[in-house]
Specification:
By secondary structure, this protein is α/β, with parallel strands linked by helices. The chain has one domain: Alpha/Beta hydrolase fold, catalytic domain (Rossmann fold, 3-Layer(aba) Sandwich). The protein contains six helices and ten strands. The strands form two sheets. It has an eight-stranded mixed sheet, sandwiched between helices. Strand 1 and strand 2 form a beta hairpin. It is globular, with a radius of gyration of 17 Å.
Length: 244
């Protein structure tokens, strides 16, 4: 879907859930006519940052409508280099609230004027990787989800007996936040739910392997250029498949 001469259009888009307002970031190629599939980007624990917006632009250059979601609320952002536990933990402790905010994000993307409403995928990084798995578990109206160095812990709500969205998990094998035992658990969970799932494990690779700024071996967050390139290509192959 690569365009030869892109003309990126970007905009902020407010959307609501109840009385709460969230701010998405949209990017698409104006040189391409007509509607196109949407790819929602779920942010890491700091909230929607430049990194997520840059990924959204890259997706637009591939021919999709990129939509950077917001599950914290308009204007609520953390510290990209700091501890954002205070933002993330309330949603990890209330996975139903998280699910509802994620579903609102998917709906906002699918209703955009340039979006093919029946062709939506979701990708996410770290905390966002957990978010996309929850959307699959909830049988959200999406064709597929991609988790980059995500967290695997299941929610406290009932998971569907058959998960319909296709699932791609891109995982650093030495990730201390998602151990080989956790990999086995998510594999068993998805198999029990009759999901169409695949998992790519990258050897010698830790958490946050797509983030060039990650360089903390003690925390287990280290950038890996090779894994980052391989995982991005795997995502592109996956999107081409599910939107075919």
């Amino acid at each position: 879907m690569q365009s030869t001469a892109t003309k990126l259009k970007t905009e902020n888009l407010d959307y609501k859930l109840g009385n709460d307002t969230f701010e998405g970031f949209v990017a698409y190629d104006e040189s391409k006519s007509g509607k196109r599939p949407s790819v929602v980007v779920c942010h890491a624990w700091a909230g929607q940052m430049d990194a997520e917006r840059d990924i959204t632009k890259k997706l637009a250059e591939l021919g999709y409508l990129g939509f950077a979601a917001d599950v914290y609320g308009k204007g609520v952002r953390g510290d990209i280099q700091g501890d954002n536990t205070n933002l993330m933990m309330p949603l990890l402790q209330d996975r139903t609230l998280l699910k509802n905010r994620l579903l609102a994000s998917v709906e906002a993307a699918s209703k955009h004027a340039m979006s093919e409403s029946d062709k939506v995928a979701v990708i996410g990084y770290c905390f966002g990787g957990l978010c996309v798995l929850d959307l699959a578990r909830a049988n959200a109206p999406v064709q597929g989800v991609v988790s980059f160095h995500g967290l695997f812990s299941p929610p406290d709500w009932k998971i569907e007996k058959q998960i319909k969205p296709k699932i791609l998990i891109l995982h650093g094998w030495d990730d201390p936040m998602a151990t080989p035992q956790n990999v086995l658990e998510i594999s068993n969970e998805l198999t029990r739910a009759n999901a169409d799932w695949q998992l790519h494990g990258y050897g010698g690779t830790m958490h946050a392997f797509t983030n060039p700024a990650a360089n903390n071996k003690e925390r287990g967050t280290v950038y890996n250029e090779v894994a980052a390139i391989r995982s991005w290509q795997s995502m592109q192959n996956f999107l081409s498949e599910i939107f075919a």
